[in-house]
Design goal:
With 71 residues, this protein is of the alpha+beta class. It contains three helices and two strands; from the N terminus they run ββααα.
Length: 71
């Protein structure tokens, strides 16, 4: 189910099969926000490691970490 957080409450985008007032447990996962993963911002971060990560990209970085784990 997808919901939006509006004025302090989660509002489902589609009808939900629940009774009024029914209590539920939720696990909230955010949709990826491209603005949070703007690699061009990382290039301006301090340290050469951050700049290298921004230049390489997340996929290449993740692949390199996986390769290290397999050694």
């Amino acid at each position: 189910m997808i919901a939006r957080y509006v004025r302090g409450a989660l509002e489902p985008e589609q009808p939900v099969a629940l009774r009024e007032g029914e209590r539920v447990r939720l696990i909230v996962l955010r949709h990826p926000d491209p603005a949070r993963w703007d690699s061009s911002r990382w290039a301006h971060a301090s340290g050469t490691e951050d700049a290298a990560l921004a230049e390489t990209g997340l996929n290449d970085w993740a692949a390199a970490l996986d390769a290290e784990d397999r050694r």
